[in-house]
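Example 3.2
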Amino acid sequence: MKKYILSLAVVSLFYTKSDACAWSDPDYEYFNLFTQSIIKDKSYLPFLHSYSTRFYTDYNKSQIPDENVESWKKYFNNQLTYSETDFLVYKMGMNDLNDLKKGASTNPLLQKLGNGSYQKYREGIDYLIEAKYLEPFMRINFVENENSFYYDGNQNGKNATQLDYNKTIAALTSLYNAAQNLEIKQRYGYQLVRFNHYTRNYDAATQAFKTYIEPVKLRGSVYFMALDQLAGAQRGLQMNTDANWNFFQVFMNSKSRKESAFVSMKLSDTASFNNIMKRAGTNEEKNMAYFLLGYEDFNNPIPIMEKMYDINPDSEMLKVMAVRSINELERSYLPIYYYNTNETHGSSGYNKTSESKTESSPSEASEVKQEKLSFWQKIVRFFKKLFGIKSDPATADGKSDQSDDELLNNPDRIPFYTKNNYWYDEKTKDYLDDLEKFTEKTKEKSKDEYWQIADAYLKFLKKDYKASTEILNDIKTTHPEYLEEIKRMKVLNDIVSQPKIDAAYEDHLIKDYAEYFVEKEVKKDTAATDEYDYYGTVPSTADFLKDVMANRYFLQGEDGKSFLMNNKLSDLQYNPNSSLVKSVEEFYRKPNKTQFEQQIIAKNMDDVGNIEGFFALIYGDRAMRLADFEKAKSYYQKAGNFSGIPRSEWNYDAKKVTPLQYKATQYNGYANISDLVFGHNVWESYQSDEQTSMAKEDYSPFPFIKPKMNKLELADALIQLKKLGTGKDEKAAKANQLIGNLLYNTSILGYYRQLFVMDIDNSNGGKYDFWNTDRKNPYQYYYKNFLNTTYIEPDNFDLALSYYKKALDASANKEQKARILFQMASAEQGKYYQYEAKNPVKIDYSDPKYTEKTDAHQQEMDRLKNQKFRTYFALLKTQYSGTETAKNLMGSCSYFDYFMK
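Structure, written as tokens:
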């Protein structure tokens, strides 16, 4: 079973949208709901659809029968099982067979052949002894040439040239002539062809086939084993057309050698296919040739499938082509993650960007973009108003009141077709309609229920769930794999077609489909698994349904439930957006949860310590960022039991990942905040320690500012500073300056930027991106891959500027004014970065004037920066350039020095 490496959460924080990952496996990037391997002829399993390997590998090798083993099983009168025969032919040692020949065998498997078994099967046993002697040498010798690319082969390995050629040929010829059983005789002939092939005596190999294989007149497994060797010898003689034809015969007639024969054919051009098609005399050969052509040229296989249908609509190869086509479609309809298609807001009926003022965000005005309505939409809204029908889909409790039809027709309702082509050929197209027409036609002609199942599945992809279910209900079959697929598809149709997920439907899910939602405990063999479990499992039906439920809750406005379908409660720390946190908290406090909510959703309320404290801290932090210190204090009073931001670390003693244990003096999200948070930068470096990067102000007038504080104490200090700041003296000026400092220092630009966004340090990450922090909700379909998208409210630098302005107006000290102006200039710089992020350059890289246009854009941005966002730098230069503060700043801030010059 293939595995893929999961990207680490900490890495994902650097990206808003990740289209591809160096560790990704394309065969793990969609939900394989239509099981490819349900084809009846398992010899075609290697030719199912796969992008990560040349041939499909997700099956048990024993599913493909080995006709050589089957032939031996028949030779021994079926006294041994298939697996026992396989062991006898391929794994049993030569000594065991020699003991049987001597009448001294104690091997229980050989004893199953009965008394006198050697005499009864003498020729077969003697052949196996000879074959096992030859087998280690039966490989071609490596001959180095200019194309070897430093590969010297396995020089110490055995090969056919290490056997005495004349003696081996003489022995095999003698054994061939002595054999009475025609199949055993032909087996010796096979060894003669193979030995000559592997010793590069290609002419002798072709002659041996004519002399020893063809006269026997058997066309069973041994014949095609020998034909495979003949084709290899013909390839050595540059008889490529004959070699391809014989490999083609092996491919068509052998079960276990299809993959190797296909590789050996080397069908690299149209002429190779044409030569095979010209020689194809029977319908079966023509059908097989079309299959190979369709397999190699897979952009649109339907024209080839039409030709195969005309020959034989019951062809197993036609089913293989169909299942490959379905698999190709699935990759676009069922990706494991739907990327946002709108950079600013979702296109769903429930506008996720429209947020009114909430308790968590008291000073934020909602920003609702005006919709462009069609004439018909205007008529619909007119009648809704006329009859008192609500037009706003978001109700007071945040849930959607859309009708069933609106929910079913929502463009963001998964699954739907998406251009999932970053890994695949650009020519890959949605040929669902054509494939559906072909499948409908074929199911009328073919007797195999497979085509009915395929038709039902295609209708599922087209969202015609009623028609899909009707087809499934009419299928009569006893095939176990078909029955399993039908059962799964009925569940899919039921769940995906449900317009709205309400309590009654949740009860139905937990009662009838618990197996798809209740996670089973998987016991791992610790001795056989790596301690570092970086691997995930194959995306499953259960995973798909989890995504469907997350999407439905999202569209219904139940963000908390949507979030918890794909995430843990502790994940909120990475993007603590107020509205989402509020929705999750509402679900947490919901008094009468359904059984589904309790067992499936609420279980993701994982260990964050004290949950009440966890929520209170997030709300308190948001209030602090909005300078609402009184509200922050009221929340922090409820966060006393907060046990630390829930992070993990590798425990070397326990040899496993365990919760991070914070040191007594370490910042844990709540406690151990330095009074330097009221200070100012002296060195712009997030990586340096705080004593290097920051300097204290004069705190002596404010004894309530402690050297170390928790957030409750910090909020209380700010409340006292705010009160003192209402005055008009120097103390009031200093109080307002300290408040401004704190607001700036805890902004995206500040050294303590981690304090109010649930982070443990100021190291880089998505929380500190300017380019997307202005979006209310960048999610469009659900909260899957939550950590890949920045989702916190932007800083309001005007709050810091307002306190600095009060300080500037109240202060009479020129040096202090210079310092305040520099801090104001720094905050104003933040406003410029926000403006710049909202106005990125939008020039296609292929534009021939790309450089010219980008330079012009940058010049315009520089002009605006100097005209609108350098107000306080200009004041500092014109009115305070002679101060010691300004001179010192020129020495420590290169940009200010540049501006002053």
